[in-house]
Amino acid sequence: MPDPPDASLTAFLDIPDDHPFPIQNLPYGIVRPSPQDPPRVGVAIGDSVLDLAVLQEAGVFEAPVLRASPPFAESTLNRFMGLGQEAWRATRNRIQDLLRADTPALRDQPDLKARALHDRAAVTLDLPVDVGDYTDFYSSEHHARNVGTMFRGPENALKPNWKHLPVGYHGRASSIILSGEDVRRPRGQTRPDEDAPPVYGPSKLLDFELEVGVLVGPGNQREAPIPIDETPDHIFGFCLVNDWSARDIQGWEYVPLGPFLGKSFATTLSPWIVPMEALDPFRIEGPEQDPTPLPYLQQDGPWTFDIDLQVGLQTPEMDAPHPVCRTNFRHMYWTVCQQLAHHTVNGCNLRPGDLLASGTISGPTEDSYGSMLELSWRGQNPIDLPSGETRSFLEDGDRVVLSGHAQGDGYRIGFGEASGTVRPARESGAS
């Protein structure tokens, strides 16, 4: 693993200690400085964006791997992600050298600095990755037990396989959207009355799911599984994911093959990808795994992460989002390395830009449940909001905001936001 970020590093820019994007973070995104500019790779630093395409053109990246395949004047991060650890480390080291308060390489070059640094509030953000394949896991024991208890009772909450392997399903990559885009309430088949035939119409049980996503860097050849001790070399970075879910559509369709239309209408990603190196100081031991996983899933060292997560809900009657969930990534039972190793153990090949989402992240307390399904306990206990309203599931006009950070000693590693607003279902048959 690369060396963890140095807490003593400071940038020549003015960045408060609680800012989500200090020099220890340096998350990657795809930006356009103006609407007329083509997209390119940028790095968030404080309230600015460092334009890596400008720096690439200026010849500041001297590493052979970056000169051989220049990756920064691109509309996605995929090329850069596929170059692997050598390129990632060389880029990160060079960026930190340029931004350090005690080095003049960029600080004292006014022309280059003016061209390479943009006001973050003024740039346009694009979807950072062309996601070829998307797998959604089910790796929080608290979430799995909650949902299982609702539908099968506490004695059968977990299926027999759940503690033996990371359960997942193949999601829909084509409907992954960027934070800030609206989400249209889906239509589909539901069966609200078990004694009557199914009906067709807008979902009435629309939900969010608080998740963390992992983006694959270099993939693997088909029929060549990734050993678990090599999985960190294949992880580019992390982002926030809202796996929007239509619970009534999902509940009718999922037997026997699992989620389909209840999930595939929208999945929201945060625009900034936090590199693995930035999160390395926050690795911790996860929950004890009992029974002991099979050998291909056994790993040395701590491989979950101490990341505080929050979901805010804002109705049209409210001026700001109200926190309805506070939880932590530490509650995940299966680690990202175990997910990746299991995904490839059958010979499945992963490719740069593939997305592995954690599944809903829930903690042990009622205010740490990562979905409306759990927070309202299947609608039985509506959530009270400061506006005087209540919610069991999401209504039209509701805005959901996911956020998260890892707190270091004198600095914070933030993820930005993954937000979306629910719009009414289209009229039946409308284009």
Given as residue ranges, the uncertain stretches (5+ residues, pLDDT < 50) are none
CATH class of the largest domain: Alpha Beta
Oligomer: single chain
Mind describing the biggest β-sheet?
8 strands, mixed
How many separate domains make up the residues?
2
CATH topology description of the largest domain: Fumarylacetoacetate hydrolase, domain 2
| Tally of helical runs | 11
Give a description of the structure.
The protein has 431 residues and is an alpha+beta fold. It folds into two domains: 28-126, Fumarylacetoacetase, N-terminal domain (SH3 type barrels); 134-423, Fumarylacetoacetate hydrolase, domain 2, CATH 3.90.850.10. It is built from eleven helices and 26 strands. The chain has helices spanning 52-57, 64-68, 78-83, 85-99, 104-107, 110-116, 141-152, 247-253, 276-279, 336-344, 372-375, and strands at residues 28-32, 40-45, 48-51, 117-119, 124-126, 134-137, 168-170, 176-178, 183-184, 187-190, 199-202, 206-207, 210-216, 235-242, 245-246, 267-269, 274-275, 283-284, 304-305, 308-314, 322-328, 355-357, 383-384, 390-391, 399-407, 412-423. The strands form seven sheets. Strands 6, 7, 8, 13, 14, 16, 17 and 22 form an eight-stranded mixed sheet that branches. A five-stranded antiparallel sheet has the order 4-3-2-1-5. The protein has a five-stranded mixed sheet with strand order 9-26-25-20-21, with no helix packed on it. A hairpin with a 7-residue loop joins strand 1 (28-32) and strand 2. The longest helix has 15 residues, at 85-99. The radius of gyration is 22 Å and the shape is globular. The termini are far apart. The relative contact order is 0.18.
